[in-house]
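Collaborator request, handled under Task 6.
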Amino acid sequence: SDVATPLIEVRDEEFVVNEEAIRLLQSIEVPVCVVAIAGLYRTGKSFLLNRLVESSGGFRVGGSIEACTRGIWIWGRPVAHTLRDGSECRIIYLDTEGVGGLEASATHDARIFSLATLLASHLIYNSVGNIDEGAINSLSFIANLTRHIHVHATARSAGESAGAGGSDAAGAGDGEEGDGDADEDEEGGEDDVEASNRLAAFFPGFTWVLRDFSLDLVDENGNEITPNQHLERCLQPQPADSESSGQRNQVRRKLRHFFHDRECCTLSRPVTDEAALQRADELPEGDLRPKFRAQLQGLRRRLGARVGPKTLHGRALNGRMLAGLLRAYVSAINGDGVPTISTAWATVAQAESALAAERARARMAAAVEELAGRMPVETKDLEAELAAAEAGALAQFQAAAVGDAAEGAAAAELRVALQAARAEAVARNEAASKRACEELLESLVKERLAPKCDPTGDEVYGSVTAVAEDWREVERLYTQSAVGPATHATLASHASKALLQCASAALDAAAARCAQREAAAAEREQATRKELEEQRATAVSLEARLDEASRRAAALDEDK
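Structure tokens returned to the collaborator:
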């Protein structure tokens, strides 16, 4: 939305992370460029941010001496931005509570500034007027920043932690090492210069904006100088005639040392009328002074050209990673500790790598499911697709994993999970192949062999040889269509059963035919026997009749 929302609120002297803002950050998957503004309270920081984001009411602006911003606020609509290399990012604008507010302590101011510095990839320091001794003095807490931010964990801050081995500095050195006295720092008793050297590598770009600036930028000889030259001159050591001037020189040294990438720009008063100034945030940009508008547009262009993604150890952070760092820093502060970059980074790296592993497993699972929709497939094709899916999942993990996780335990666990997914896919393909091959073979047997095995059918196998001939045709058709690793095993396991059934049917049919032939022969033999008996009976009858006739003839002869 086009309004600001709290990112860190202050309640009972404790920092509270606003979950709504965290969800906004977590929704940003691309690198984030974080522009934070800091400065004395009631100097128009929120007004400037509203003008930078071209909104008249995003960040709350007041017209009294009371501070309007407590904690840190975030602009509700990250701004899409294209970097010089063509990649996409989102610019996030943060407004911080003003330094020196009536309700805040010096420790509170330092913590707010430390958080802004840790989160930002570019820090705007907003002040009114020239860079004079008062302006330098307002940054006195800078001299003790190494007491409020640590690079590595110490005995006082949550134990030794891994992960901070790289540098994100815009440049190396700046020629300031050993510039001034070294005093004892909170980091493990090491001197302040060494601690500052490590810390400077993580600091953002720095722009000092001089508001309501009306002076001529000239040197002592009247030669015109640029705002950047003016800044460098003001940051040079001044004669130290008192303890306070020595402290201001220490601030100058720290500013030069911490912020290697620095510049200065000036903005004239936005309007000349005092009444209009009180409601300047409500005025359309066209109603502001032309000089102010031109300077503001120049600042927008320079920020657009200079701003880059927030990085740690060479890794550009997305919104989710920034949210993780924020939680870790706030947790350390609320626990009366010191934000430690390496500890926070280790926490973010662990969470980000776990998420990367989860997404890689999900990618592999999706690939397996897509394959399952096409199963069964040939083993060589399955292995090729699974190898490509595993390589893609690992590449995705390597690209997203943070820190040592890309080659550490998380990677090893992911490989085990991917191998398990491959084994599952192989098993599913074998099962699918077995089902498909069985269905195919059963269909061919039913179509080609079964009708001839039915003794009630029109055509029944007359011999085992005929069964063997038809089986060879079934094998040929099956081999043409069967797919997957179960092809040969299914054929081997079902062949003997099918052949035995068909051969048995053929033998049964042959036996039935033999029995029929035997029954017919027996019937014919019985008929022949009956016929012979009848013929014998006829012959006996004829013989008896002949005998009777012979006797009668003999008797007649005797009578004669």
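The cover message to the collaborator said: "The first strand starts at residue 4 and ends at 11. The CA atoms of residues 455 and 512 lie 9 Å apart. Please let us know whether this matches your experimental observations."
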